Amino acid sequence: MKAKIIVLALTITAMSFMANAQAGLKIGYTNADYVLSLLPEAKQIDAELKAYEKQLQNQLQAKYKDLQAKVADYETNVNSYDELIRADKEQEITTLQQNIQKFSQDAETSMGNKRNQLLAPAYEKIGTAIETTAKENGYSHVFSAGAPGFDVLLYAREEDNISNLVLKQLGITPPIAE
Questions:
Q1: Total domain count for the chain?
Q2: Is 94 a member of any domain?
Q3: How far apart are CA 69 and CA 63, in angstroms?
Q4: For 152, which DSSP code?
């Protein structure tokens, strides 16, 4: 009889503990890229990135044109060059090719750095809004969703999506769902 009472008391205690634990657990999710796309500054960030990319492309095209001109000149005049001039022209073309390859790699890195520099304040703003939204609405956990292959969330109910609450926190009226 004592064993049954102890088991019953332990069961009641365990059920009470689980009920309290679940009462404090409220989980939501959001898609930061979706929120970012609706920020007013998103268009400006996109425009700045495109302008910077265009600058880099123009510089690369100028380098290619210079290389093409030097190669065309070399091919046209190669028979008239003596050994020293031919070697110098070949070295000049090789150096231009190497410079173009290095510029291309550096431009890619620079573009990534520029993207990170421009997006960092926006993502920080979104992060702050997510934290505020979670606290104001009693969410104990908020997961990220919407980045295929990088989702931290494998399943969630649509009613737990707090993206529109985050947008409201940022002063943005969410688009009407279709």
A1: 1
A2: yes
A3: 10
A4: S
Domain that holds residue 85: 24-169
Contact criterion met (CB below 8 Å) for 20 and 155: no
Q: How many residues does the chain have?
A: 178
Other C-beta atoms closer than 10 Å to the C-beta of 20 total: 10
Rounded to whole angstroms, the Cα distance separating 133 from 171 reads 12
pLDDT of residue 140: 85
pLDDT at 5 > cutoff 60: no
Q: Quick check: is 176 in a domain?
A: no
What are the beta bridge partners of residue 29?
Answer: 143, 161
Distance CA 47, CA 50 (A): 5
Return the residue matching tokens 């943005």: 172
Residues 131 and 140: beta-carbon distance below 8 Å: no
pLDDT, tens digit, for every residue of 94-141?
999 999 999 999 999 999 999 999 999 999 999 899 889 988 998 888
